[in-house]
Every structure is written in structure tokens, then in C-alpha cells.
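User: Can you help me understand a structure? I only have the sequence.
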Amino acid sequence: MNWGGLITIFLSGTIKFMVAPISGPIFKLGFLETYLATCAGAVFSATISYFGAEYFIYRAANKKKKAIELAIANNIPFKGKRKFNKPNRFVVKIKRKLGIIGLSFWAPFFLSIPIGSIVVAKFYGKRKITFPLIIIGIFLNALITTSIVYTINYYA
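Assistant: Let's start by predicting it. Here is the structure, written out as C-alpha cells:
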């Protein structure tokens, strides 16, 4: 068993889950090893990010509040960040079209596990079904991407 390869896939699954299975055939790991290492890393990261999202959201709100107060104290007009950039539009479009299931399945996949989990927690964090949907999405997306990687590798 290639522990270095498993750890590498686990760690890449914690950050950029979409590309984690690509290194499985490179490390000469089997389909199941790659799939499980990718899922384990993604679930680990999603758990920390989802349940820590409240802290991150609170921290961001306090930072913005302090910046506004500082601007007011110094008589400087406050210029906030652009609210509608491409990633924000993408998230809102998915939220409106696909709802809680689409956002829970696709935001962690396309954005990254930590950012996607925080986005889902921000919009649907009060619902108990949200975190299980993220986990189901991780397992399904890992199965699809790992299958594609090993199919391409088999025929190449």
C-alpha cells in the first residue's frame, strides 16, 4: 500500500476535491483506494468548514463593521467590495435554479470543499438536512470523478 499516495490524495481532497482522483493512477493506487482517500479528505474538510462556518461568517461581519466604523470616524466614504462578481453570480444562480440540493452537491465540488461548505452553511445552515446532503454530494461526485479518471487511464 502506497501511504504517500494515499496521504497526498487525502490532502488534495481536503482542498480541491475535483482534481484529487487524478493522482490515483499516478501513484498506482486502485480505484477503491483512490475513491476512499478522496472521500475521506473531502468529508474531513467539509465537517470542519461547515461547522466552523458560523465563526467565519461572524468574523467577516465584524471585520466589515469595524471598517465602516473606521471610515466614519475618519470622515472617509466607505467603499465596499463588489457584491456581484462571477463566483457570487454562479452561487446565486445555482441557489435559485437548483435549491438546497443543487447548492449542497455542486458548490463544494466546483468552488472547493472549504469555501463551498461555508457558502452552503451561510444559505442553508439552519436546516438539518444540509450537512447530510453535502456528504451525499461528496460521495457521488467522488464516484463520478474517480470513475472518469480510471476509465480514461484504462483506455489511454
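Now, to help you interpret it: Residues 3-155 form one domain. DSSP finds six helices and no strands in the chain. Let me know which part you'd like to focus on.
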